[in-house]
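[audit] Reproducing an earlier prediction to check determinism. Same input, same settings, fresh worker. If the tokens differ from the archived copy the diff job will pick it up downstream; this log only records the rerun itself.
[audit] input (252 residues):
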Amino acid sequence: MSSIYSQLSKNQLKIEKEQPSLLPTERLDEYKLTGIKTAIAGAFIFSLLGLAGAGYLFQRLNSEQRERQALEAVSQEFRSRAEVVQVKAAELETIVMQYRQEIDGLKNQLKSSAAERNEIKQALEKSNRSLTSLQKKMADLEARSRAIEDETAFIRTSAVPGAAMEGRNAAQAQTPKTFQVLTINRKFNFVVVNVGLKDKVKMGSILEIQRAGKKIGKVQVEKVYENFSAAAVVEEPKDAPFKEGDLVGKIS
């Protein structure tokens, strides 16, 4: 701007030197002309300044617009990525839910398998106990059977009261037979009595044991022979246990 003013001043001085002295009226006109030129120059300068400002504002506006567009593009990209991330997150959550359900199912199966295993183990232990008990019972029965066989074999070869009477004279043979306890096996808790098949005794028959004409207990026949039987003790008083010679009463 200083160059324009200096140029105008130089031109004004040059005009004044070249022109002759003016009259007062002419000088007034000259002043007016100078003011007009100054106003025109100022207007021109302001126009230039306005154009420069407008150009700056335009550039600034374009720059801001480009920045805004760039920001919008970045924002859109972030939104797109966020949407992709949300979709992936939803997919992963679904997968995690499925895995959790599978894990819960496996846990339930494991619990069920453990329960079944325990049941099988308990059943096996029970079966083993039952088998052991049955084996013991079988061994006891075999031992009991051998003991009965031994007792009855001994009785068959011994002089059994009542059996010897069969070889006596007819008068003595007609004497009623006395049914009684011949022997007692405390280990296996059975008795041998001289009551057999010919006396209408059978397996499972209940025999009443008497002493002094009174019932003191009962036994159940588990092996029967022609002239005697082996019977398990069913009922026996603790204060008056069976003994050899006790009588056999009622048979049922």
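[audit] rerun output stored. Observation attached for the diff report: The helical segments are 2-18, 24-157, 170-173.
[audit] end
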